[in-house]
Every structure is written in C-alpha cells, then in structure tokens.
Write a structure and sequence with these properties.
Layout (H helix, E strand, L loop, with lengths): L4 H9 L6 H12 L9 H8 L3 H10 L5 H11 L10 H4 L4 H19 L4 H12 L3 E4 L5 H11 L6 E4 L5 H11 L4 E6 L5 H12 L3 E6 L12 E4 L12 H16 L4 H15 L5
Length: 283
C-alpha cells in the first residue's frame, strides 16, 4: 500500500471485520481522506449516507473510545495536506479500487508462501480422492466456491455431491453421503460464517467424516470442527469480501486430488472427446 492518506486509512481498516454499513463509512473516508480528520461525526454520517450512531459504532469497532478519539488519530495518520488517491507525484498514490486489487495480490502472495510446504495440500488431496462419494459444502458467501470446486471435481472424481443449501435437509444429505460410503467432506467457509456451517461440520465429524476446510483464517469458527484446515485470506477492502485466494486454493486442491486419482486423465480425455462430438463448445 502507498504512503498516501488514503493508503494509511486503508491500513487502519485492514484486519477489522466490518459490517456493510461500516465498510460504507470506511470507503467514504478513503475517498475523502484529506477532509475526514476535520469532519464531525454528523458530517461524516451525511457524506456516507448513514446515521450518526453508525459512525460512533464504527469508531468503536476500530478500537477507539468513540469518534473524537478516532478523529484525533486520523489527524496523525492522514494529514490533509496530501491529496488522497490523486495519483500525483509519479503515480505513487492508489485509489480504493486499486488498493483492493493490491490487497488481493498480497493475499495470493501469502498463499504462495504457505504452499511452499505442499504437505497439507497433498494430504487433503488424498483424503478427497479416497472419499466415494465426496460431499462439498459451502453456504451463503462460500456457495460459489463450493459450486466451482464441485463442477470441476466432477470431471475427474466419480461421485461429487454439492451441499450448497442449508436448512433441515443438510444433515440428511450428510447422512446420505455417509451411508453411501463417504469418508471425507470438503468445506469452504468464508465470512460471515453461518452458524449452520459450524453445526454441519460438527455433525459430519461425529458421523465419522474427515473434514477438510478452506477458511479465511486458521482461527475461523470452523477450525475446531476441522481435521485439516488450510487458510486463504479474503480481501476486505470493498463493500463485499473478495475471495481470489480461496478460489485459487480450491483449484490447487483440485490438482492435488486429481494427482491421486489414477483415471483422472482418462476421464478428462473422455469428456473432451464427447464434448467435441456434441459440439459443446464454440471454437
């Protein structure tokens, strides 16, 4: 991140789990980085389109006693003489969208460093490959990660079962997978963590499944109910989390699983042959 007022503000917000309303305030502050050290809580609320109490709660969420304490801190970390995100001075400053992309790049770099030890991923690949069927769980924000994994996994694994809907049927589907011979479950768990995901993992382990989890942190609520958790950080710089690193980790797990399936390549070639015969894809 740059050493601009906007960059220093962004650094202040990183690592805090903010609500959508609080993120809206944060984005407004980044856009008006040169002005916010001298704005009242009412003025900031009006600019962000939120209530004044929301601004106060935002300051407390950042660890300050209230908004006055936050404003005093802002006068130290984001002095108004610099133009936030202007790009002046050789393009050293970045706007909030660039900062979000750069933060995701850092998340991917961190994941690459984590993968320097391939042991956990290789162990996960073995567990997933041996499970017949293989249930893949992901609810709410994580449902797209689970669906993407299941789509590609079905091309090399003989029986993949996507669990992307909660409710009372979820435990029934876990039971059905266990009865059919499942030995492991893959879970994508991303903020905000639904309570039923935690409960589902607890149930799955009690039913005898080994739980492999992709989560945003090793300290995520699902950690206590996972046999193997591999973390991949999410980006928090925009109104909604970005999950490039968890998606990439999912593809890495696919590769590790395919390496453990002796007929994976044959399955892929068979699919390509049939797809060509059907004219499935436009060349």
């Amino acid at each position: 991140m740059s050493d601009s007022p906007a960059g220093r503000l962004q650094a202040l917000f990183e690592g805090h789990r903010l609500t959508p309303t609080q993120r809206r305030i944060a984005h407004c502050m980044v856009r008006r980085a040169g002005d916010v050290p001298f704005l009242s809580s009412v003025e900031l609320a009006e600019l962000a389109g939120v209530s004044q109490p929301s601004v106060t709660r935002f300051a407390v969420a950042l660890g300050f006693d209230g908004y006055p304490a936050l404003r005093r801190h802002l006068r130290e970390v984001a002095p108004p003489e610099a133009d936030a995100g202007s790009g002046a001075g050789g393009g050293e400053a970045f706007n909030e969208y660039q900062q979000a992309v750069l933060a995701e790049i850092e998340n991917l770099r961190h994941l690459a460093g984590l993968l320097a030890d391939p042991g956990p991923v290789e162990r996960a690949g073995r567990l997933l490959a041996r499970s017949r069927p293989l249930p893949v769980l992901g609810l709410r924000a994580a449902s797209s990660q689970a669906r993407g994994f299941a789509y590609f996994a079905a091309k090399v694994h003989p029986d993949v079962r996507l669990l992307d809907e909660g409710g009372s049927m979820l435990t029934d589907r876990v039971d059905a997978a266990v009865r059919a011979g499942a030995t492991a479950l893959l879970c994508f768990a991303l903020p905000r963590h639904p309570r039923e995901v935690v409960e589902a993992l607890e149930y799955a382990r009690a039913a005898g499944l080994a739980v492999v989890t992709v989560a945003d942190s090793a300290f995520a609520p699902v950690a206590a109910h996972s046999d193997l958790l591999i973390p991949a950080a999410v980006g928090t710089g925009l109104a909604f989390d970005t999950a490039c690193a968890p998606m990439m980790l999912g593809r890495v797990l696919l590769e590790a699983m395919a390496d453990e399936l002796p007929d994976a390549q044959a399955r892929l070639e068979e699919f390509d042959t049939k797809a060509a015969a059907r004219g499935l894809f436009v060349e």
